[in-house]
Design a protein that fits this description.
By secondary structure, this protein is α/β, with parallel strands linked by helices. About 40% of the residues lie in helices and about 15% in strands. The longest helix is centred in the middle third of the chain and has 18 residues, at about 155-170.
Amino acid sequence: MATRAQDQELIAQVADEHGVVAVKSTGAGDQNWELIGHVIPSFGWHPWFSHHLYDDGNGISQKDKAAHYRAILTPIPEDPSFLDSLPEPRPISHFLVETENRLQRYPLALVGEIGLDRSFRIPNAWGSEEADSRDASVTPGGREGRRLSPHRVRIEHQKFVLMAQLRLAGVMQRAVSVHGVQAHGVVFETLQETWYGWERESVSKRMRRKKALEEAQGSDDEYGDVEMSDDTPKPFPPRICLHSYSGPPEPLRQYFDPAVPADIYFSFSSAVNFSTQSTKAVQVIKAVPADRLLIESDLHLAGDEMDRRLEQIARVICELRGWPLDEGVRRLGENWRRFTFG
């Protein structure tokens, strides 16, 4: 799952070598497809790096670096050395075009990790000793143990970057993985904006009024109402996962309102949700509908530790839901396939 400039192409390389592809089987019919491979790629720009992008929607081809960071960071940075240490901002339109091309190249790819985070702070510049001792095997661009500055990215800018990616996911009809920390209300409001006017109940009522009006006026529309297919581009993603969800159980009602036109999933990890004794996570896991539960490792690496963490959270969820382990693993697997492939 991509997060910033340095790992987008790395994800593509892994997908080229290990990616899942759909291969037509020997049977007849449209349903005879076999999935082979091991990795579903996901391309997105994480909120921790949202300050690296700027809005070029007004025809701004090049952004003044210092002016950009002063406008979107809080408190406003005044230290010239700190400003110099930040990367040159990229126009968001370039990133969106690159991401759309990758989504077309990988038809099963998702969009993520994207989202909002009020808690994170931007790392300070590398000190000379830190730079000399840096692990060259780690993909550059992350924190890598650096001390944190007092500066955060304004939520308005984070929301701008998130909205752009949600719209792209809607156009491409791809599922998304959403990060939300200390911003659960704003995350829902942002998602709600994308489907405003497309709510299931409001659309149904509008269509009934339209049909009644046409009948009253004697409409000669020989084709009648045309219902859109599920893969029709829309302004919102078809499936949304709130990953390692750390919010309270009360907001679940709004996500599972019958009017919400997207399918909402919640995933949990031992690394985040059970790193401490959390009664809140227990309450949420018990409250989420059984067919919308997902698990994850939430680690930056694959291998034995990832597998151990996945087994750990699977066992926790099965115990909390009262499922036999084999039944729970089957349920969670079915949920993942439905979230990923639709």
